[in-house]
Amino acid sequence: MYGGTIVAAIDLLVDRGVTSKQIKVVSAVAAPPALQKLSNKFPGLHVYTGIIDSEVDERGFIVPGLGDAGDRSFAT
Asked: Which residues does the UniProt record annotate as the domain Phosphoribosyltransferase (predicted)?
């Protein structure tokens, strides 16, 4: 699943009354499928990323090497 961790985090905020336009996402790395998912699900969301890594595998992991960025960040 692309962008699963950030989508879950934003869903928590939206469930508490925060609008997409009020949220700013800052990430070190992002992949196009996740950015597209965020754009479709949260209109008006602002995303700032250090780099866009264009290659993901069939599981949505950034390759080579990073894997699931959310899992790496939160040791899940």
From this structure: 3-76
Best CA proximity match to 49, nearest among 22, 21, 64, 30: 30
Contacts for 40 with CB less than 8 Å, ≥ 6 apart: none
- What is the DSSP code string of 27-71? EEEE-HHHHHHHHHHSTT-EEEEEEE---B-TTS-BTTTTB-HHH
Over residues 1-53, the pLDDT tens digits come to 678 889 999 999 999 999 999 999 999 888 888 899 999 999 999 999 998 88
Given a contact cutoff of 8 angstroms between Cβ atoms, the answer to whether 46 and 23 are in contact is: yes
